[in-house]
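Page 42, continued from yesterday. The earlier attempt failed because a stray header line got pasted into the input along with the sequence. Redoing it now with the clean sequence only.
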Amino acid sequence: MRSDLYDAVHTIFGEQTDTQAMKAKTTWILIADGARARVLRNAVFDIEADGEVNDIVFEIEHKQLRDIMSDRPGRSFASVGARRSSMEYRSEPVKDQEARFADMLLEQLDRRLRNREFDRLAIIAEPRMLGVLRQRISPTLRQTIFAEVAKDLTKMPQQALRAAIAQLDIR
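This time it went through. Structure tokens are written below.
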């Protein structure tokens, strides 16, 4: 009881107590591209480890541009005369899809951070996706990031993934 009260008083005054200093920080690693993501929780950096996989996996149906824009663009009449011309698309559907996926990932990570499921976050993402994540990340989540790597590791099997992360020396 005295220990809990002692910790509470020192926490109020911004001092770190022995029990707080001893608590290990929980580290998560986000590995993502434009359509897939995996969060390694309590990441084990030992290449030889054979522990149970405890990942969070996100995946959306990745559509090619030709599938998204399968219809031809519409046609319009010119304002003067009887000429017709084709209209251009006003958006970039693949980038929009990646942005929506990034928003969903960041929303999930923000929620889990509020629930105190992790303290530190490393991001390993395909370069374009890393740029999208950087633009959209909340200030609170940004404070937990200790490493960013522009590399696509999303298609690697578990054992090869551990080896690749160990080579990156993310700790």
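Notes: The first strand starts at residue 27 and ends at 32.
Reminder to self: strip header lines before submitting.
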